Amino acid sequence: MTRLDEAKTAPAPGAPRPAAAPERNLGPLISIGVIAALLALWWVVTTGTETVKALYLPSPESLWTAITTLNTQLLSDAGATLGRVLASWIGGSALGVLVGLAMARSRWLMYALNPIIEAVRPVPPVALIPFVILWFGIGDSGKLFLGALACFMVMVVNTTVAVGNVPPVYLQAARSLGADSGRVYRSVVLPAIVPEILSGFRIGSALAFAVVVAAEFLGADAGIGRLIMQASRTLNTAVVLLGTVCIALMAVVLDQAISRISAHVTRWAAQR
Amino acid sequence: MAQITIDSVSKVFATARKRTVALNETSLAIDHCEIVCVVGPSGCGKTTLLNLIAGFIGPTEGSISLDGREVGGPAADRAVVFQADAVFPWLTVTDNVAFGPRMQGMPRAERTERVERFLELVGLAEFAKAYPKELSGGMRKRVDLARAYASGPDVLLLDEPFGALDLFTKETMWTALRKVAEVEPKTIVFVTHDIEEALFLGDRVIVMTPRPARVHSVIDVPFGADRNLDLRADPDFQRLRIDIAHSLREVHDDTAR
What we know:
Distance between the termini of chain B: 44 Å
Shape of chain B: globular
Strand content of chain B: 15-25%
Strand content of chain A: under 5%
Order of helices and strands of chain A: HHHHHHHHHHH
Number of helices of chain B: 8
Number of strands of chain B: 10
Largest sheet of chain A: none
Distance between the termini of chain A: 35 Å
Number of strands of chain A: 0
Largest sheet of chain B: 6 strands, mixed
Radius of gyration of chain B: 18 Å
Structural class of chain B: alpha/beta
Helix content of chain B: 25-40%
Number of helices of chain A: 11
Shape of chain A: flat
Largest interface: A-B, 36 and 49 residues
Order of helices and strands of chain B: EEEHEEEHHHHEHEHEEH
Oligomer: heterodimer
């Protein structure tokens, strides 16, 4: 058969995308500009004009001083928090996906577990902190439990919904191409839900930070949450701000990493 | 090789409130390597008929058999091309077409050869490594067609496959389908509401009526195997088109009363 006209107009695979419009290139510049402007404003209202008292908003210089004084302690606190976040996020999410898949597959399991999950889900994990401290003490295990619980809840719901969203026509097509039900599951359902699972991972990672730091506030031997709490008791707001910035940076880096990986893994998905 | 026998089949969809007869005592025999087009207005049960042959649903009464074996569920001997986009977006064009053979455990070398052959046949050889999102709607439909063919079915079931395409793309798809069917003859059941499409593609056209959904008339299409798009200007073609349009209108008036 001759190539059809239609084929000629469609973009060839791997062909470079048409050059972005000039306004598009402006986007990142605007973002950088706004950040720079805010940083400048921060300096102006603190060091520059001293409009805002150092207690309310520490100056950039005092932040730097805090970094140099804390030095390795900052690193070890950040490391403790990040470690807890990663462990609880990975563990909780993995378990959540597995249980979600099982629930989507078995009606009985759905009936058995769904009420519990729906009842626990609206409870903010931080509301459980008092119990968690009673059960686990102030060590790592309680914080891991809370972070994992938060991620688990997100992923269970996310996974069951994602399985339900797989277009029935994919399943029918697979059946009529000779796939048995196990094969349909492995070759159609699992790959089809990957984009939704990955976006659940992203939500979970942010939640894990929130929950772990909150748990550290109420008692921990190390961690950014503990650092912030201790500094706030002595009104050392430079360290408080430093801790906050530190969390933000870690969260952004993790989020970016997940989003890069998922963009690669789901490069087949239509741009959203 | 693949004769479809539909023996007084009825399908009733019952909910607590309502009982809908989607197909009423329909009998039909479709011959080996015949292309049968089923036309009818929406709600006449043509998709139900196709889903019954595919085995996605079971009949309420009667039976459907393929070469004497009763249809018990979907299987690789009956491939389906749907109106909706059913090409798997996470697989490349090649992997989509290879899906059926892979599920059926065909060895890799044989699989590759087969995939290449059908991609060539539908004119997509150079898009083998592309993901579906990089293709136009018409090209995705051709992937779907190649995928159905590559799984080696006896019967090909097409449910308004080109319904969402524009006229020009549709015409190229008609030509493509006729060409593929010529090279690899299959028993084909093609459901559509487009009379020209049915006449252009079919060896026989089945006209169906809604409420109660059943076969109204069967038309033998006399144009032979060698057809080109200009056939539509042929007076015989137009006469048949008008006949079918009339009977569909009649049917519609009947139910409107």
